[in-house]
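The methods section describes the discrete structure representation at length, but only in general terms. An entry of this sort, consisting of the sequence and the corresponding backbone structure tokens, reads as follows.
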Amino acid sequence: MSTSSLVLSRMLPRIAALLLLLSAPALANASSDPDYFPQGGAQYFTTHSTLAPLDGDSHNNDGFGDEPALEYHFHVYFFQNNEASTADANRLRQGIVDAVGRGEFVAVCHGVDETVLPGFNSTDDVPPVNMGPRGPHPAGSYEVWVPQEHLGMATSFMMLNRGENSVLLHPLTRHCVEDHTGRVMWMGAPFNIDRTVLAFDEESCDSPQYEELGLGYSGKGVSSTW
């Protein structure tokens, strides 16, 4: 084999991987085909190293990454103008509500109330199902809050039941831009997240949620500066 052929053969896997990364966002946004659904398995798909904050995330650099993430968000994406995609997203959401009601894990999404999750009294604070782009989310979506105590079972449920939906998993910390970029994991084809609507200041980020459940950052014995 010639030197040039050897070099090319070694480069081909890298070129293929690069093309896959470049094409994934475009594939995820190919909603013009009514029969199109995002496909693929779980992916660790991030934009940069997580060892240091992004430029501009300077409000807490000294403690960046020092504290564990104790609460998480799943964001389920669907094509709001596609009846089949919307129905599949609703199927998954109802499945989550039913699983919470059976006591399989603790999670909060639209449809969970005190009759489903005893002790939960923040129904008015639960985000609705977004039937279109909202905030950093570029398509129809809904949020599922999960505390770290139940993350394993909730993730297993998502992996086994997500169907054709793309699902974003990110931690809930004081660094909301980083949480939605360098710290994310995807199940299914990744969507482009609009990070321009996120702010670096802590006051603009989500706070610990649903304290009455006594989980996550509100768990017994938890020592957190947040």
